[in-house]
Design a protein that fits this description.
The chain contains six helices and seven strands, in the order ββαββαααβαββα. The chain is α+β, with helices and mostly antiparallel strands and 139 residues long. The longest helix is centred in the N-terminal third of the chain and has 11 residues.
Length: 139
Amino acid sequence: MQIDEIMMRAPRTITSGTTIGEAWDVLGTLELRHLPVTNENRELIGIVSDGEFSTWPPTPLSTGHLQGRAALRDAPVSTIMTGAPVSVEPDDRVEDVYELMHKIKAGALPVLGPDDEVVGIVSYLDILRSLPEAARPSS
């Protein structure tokens, strides 16, 4: 099985100039955990996840923390994103991507098309859902 069979296609992306507050709002509104960050040419330059909001600044950023903290809300997402993220291609095998994600401890990876544009994102949940019924843990 290939990644393009299980990935989320055409994921929401943001730019490095998107503010932390805007990124937080997008994650919450769309119920996402990861957002690829692109430059003005739509090239992948980073990724931001809900985890970054709990590690920067030293105190967790929740909706309550962000309200009234305009300086944090207005800072560019580039200050908290993971730069130069590992990415995969649509025709990569699910098994190989699973091994890579496990090795680098990634919750999701951007999927890049032939012109290096973000065409999808694959998460560990996508991989778990792709397991045959017999291989899934029973409840």
